Amino acid sequence: MPDLQDDSTPAVASGEPSRQLTLNGSEVQLLGTAHVSRASVEQVQALLAPGPAGAGFDAVAVELCESRFEALSDPDRLHRLDLFTVIREQRVYVVAANLALAAYQQRLADQFGIEPGAEQRAAIQLAREQGLPVLLVDRDIGVTLKRAAANLGWWKRLNLFSGLLAGLLSRDEVTEEEIERLKQGDVLETTFAEFAQDRRELYVPLISERDRFMAARLRQELKGHGYRRVLAVLGAGHLAGVADHMQDPAAPDPAETIAALEQVPTPSGFWRVFPWLVVAVILGVFAYGFTRSPELGWNLVWDWVLINGALAALGAAIAFAHPLTVLLSFFAAPLTSLNPTIGAGMVAGAAELALRRPSVGDFAALRDDVTTLRGWWRNRVSHVLTVFILVSLGSAVGTYVAGFRIVGRVIGAE
Fold first, then answer.
1. Alpha-carbon dihedral of residues 56, 61, 67, 73, nearest 10 degrees?
2. What's the mean pLDDT in 305-331?
3. Which of 60, 171, 311, 348 counts the highest number of beta carbons within 10 A?
């Protein structure tokens, strides 16, 4: 059994909660921070101060994954965003979600005068100045969101997505309730807190699983590198959970825990073939219509083209896409809806990118522009993403509306 000791202290000098753990001769100080608190930044600076004032750590762990670490340490990365690759690889929704989260962080910065995650940035900077390794112990945000989405039905996902966008793009000041949530967790948790507290399907992947993951990562780093003293800078809301999992003598091997928590649930066999079943039904209805009469068959085809194309074009028009993009969306949607490997949004997004290529200034202003709904339409970078999303939504709705329409025509013709 590993040597475990817990020297819990309710708070360090600045009032920040802290836990001191000893695992097999290695000391770990878990520092609970509030992500919008200057006191948290000051406490990190005090603990990592060079010379006698510092606590003599030989590694610093932060509550970040690789992608969030890059976003924090390289704010100019947006200037290098390859929009065509984003569209081709169907990463538009992930990029849009990250921009929405960045907009929320900017709103916090404007209101409080401190960037959320400033204590993490301070920990990274001080660790680098002293040549200390920086340990990224949080789970990849993409995996976390995918595991959260996998626990929800499509209707709950839609409600959650629309609610998050409305909250993230709001120009209202952050409420006192949100401030208190931020003092206990991170921006990701706060964004979902309204949904997660009363829903186990969200609480588990967003909070509970991350506690287990971070504890396993810390144990893995201690075991693999033999660090003597480690400072772990975590959101205060994770402090108790991470400490408990680190001290659990029955905990499995860290690598096993990490591998299990990094798995992204794959869709069931039914949902993998469902889009192709829809295509088969639509083509079957067309064929049946033509066997009944050429007039009925062409009526079915025109219904499909007009409904699907019109709704996709409407999405493009709402996004204020270029007139040629609107026209292309109309003609592309009826065809791409019969090929699940490519979407109308991909075609429209690529067309808009070619017709209205973003400038260097668009990339430079992106972080500020996405804080307003108008800015999403005005900035050519976010505008391309908006065109992709709205055309995809219009085509998806059009597929089902047109599908029910042509099936109804066939039944009515019986």
1. -20
2. 95
3. 348
